[in-house]
Amino acid sequence: MRNKQSFISTGLLSVVLSISLLLIYSTTFSQNAIRSKGSSQVRVESSMSKEQTRDIAEELAMINAIENEFNTYVEQEGETRIQNGRVNFDIIGNTKVRGEWIRTIKKDFSEETTIEKGEYGKEQVIWIKCDITGDIRECVSRADLETVTLNCPLEQCRTTTYYNGEDLFLLFQSPIDGYLSLFLADDEQAYRLLPYASMGTLSAVKIKGDKEYVIFSRKNSYPFNDGFAIDAMQLTTVKSIEYNSVYVVFSEEKYIKPILEDIQEIGDGFYLPRSLELNEFKEWLGDCRAEMPDFQAKRIRISIEME
After folding, report:
1. How many CA atoms lie within 13 A of 246 on its CB side?
2. 10-69 pLDDT, tens digit each
3. CB 19 within 8 A of CB 260
4. Among candidates 232, 255, 214, 290, which has minimal Cα distance to 29?
5. CA-to-CA distance for 262 and 275, rounded, in angstroms?
6. pLDDT tens, position by position, 119-157
7. Beta carbons of 275 and 260 less than 8 angstroms apart
8. Domain locations in the chain?
9. Which run of H or of E encompasses 44?
10. Prediction pTM value
11. DSSP string, 169-237
C-alpha cells in the first residue's frame, strides 16, 4: 500500500505517519513511587540474538524488582479484578504484575560464559545478566485495553510476525473515552504513527469508549478520517529478520507529545516519519507514568522477516 502518505523507517522497517505525546504533569502522584532493585540472568539460546536476550533479561529484572517490594505477582486470571472495564495489574512482557514500572534509573548488563553438557557433548553457553534500579509503585485501577497487531484490516489477521512489504494495522478498543497515540521503535529511534501526519502537531487522538478501531484502515478509521488523510504503514527490512516494538499510548486525560524531529523525504514519494531518539522516548514515558496515574504505554513486539 505504498502511496504519497507512506513512510519508511531506516534499517528495520518502513513506517507510516506517527505522532507522539508528552503528558500534562500532575505533581502529586509520583510521590507514591518506591525505588527498587532487581536482577535476572538469561541464557542466550541458538534461536535468539544477544539483543533479544538482553531485552528479556531487562524485563525479568523489572519483574524481580517489583516482586521484591510487593512480594507477589499475578499468574492466573482468577487472581485479578476487572470492574467497570478497569484492571488492577500491569503487564511486563507476558507477565501480569501488581506493581507498575515507572522509569529506569540505572541498568547494567554483563555476560558469563559456562561449559555445559549438550546433546553432542560439551558446549559453550553464554548467559546475560541484567541489574536494574528503577522507580515503581503499586498498580491502580485503570482501563483494560484491547490492543492487537494485524497484517490485514480484519480481526482474524492477528499476528506479530510480518514479512518484508506487509502492511501493519492495529485493532484497538477501550472501555472508556480517552486519548490515543501510537509509536514504533527500533533500536535507536521511536517513530510517531498516530496521530496521522496530516493532523500536524496534535498530541493524541480522542477515542470513544466501547468502539472498535482498526488503525491505518480506510474502512474502519472513524473518527480519524474526519478531514484528514489516512496513512498507510508498510513494514520493510534489509536484514534476514529485524525486531521492533509498537507502543500503544493511552490516557483518560489529555497529554502533550514530546518534541519530534521533522518528517524527512527520502524519495519515490516515501518519507521518514517524525521521531525522537529511543532513550528520549523512554524518558518521556517515565515522566508521563510518574505524573499521570491512568497513563498506559502497552508494548507489542513484532518481527519483520525476509521471505
Report:
1. 29
2. 333 333 322 222 222 333 444 488 999 999 999 988 878 888 889 889 988 998 999 888
3. yes
4. 290
5. 7
6. 788 888 899 999 999 999 988 778 889 999 999 999 999
7. yes
8. 31-138, 144-305
9. none
10. 0.78
11. EEEEE-SS-EEEEEEEE-SSEEEEEES-GGGTT---EEE-TT--EEET-SSS-TTTTSSSPPPP-B---
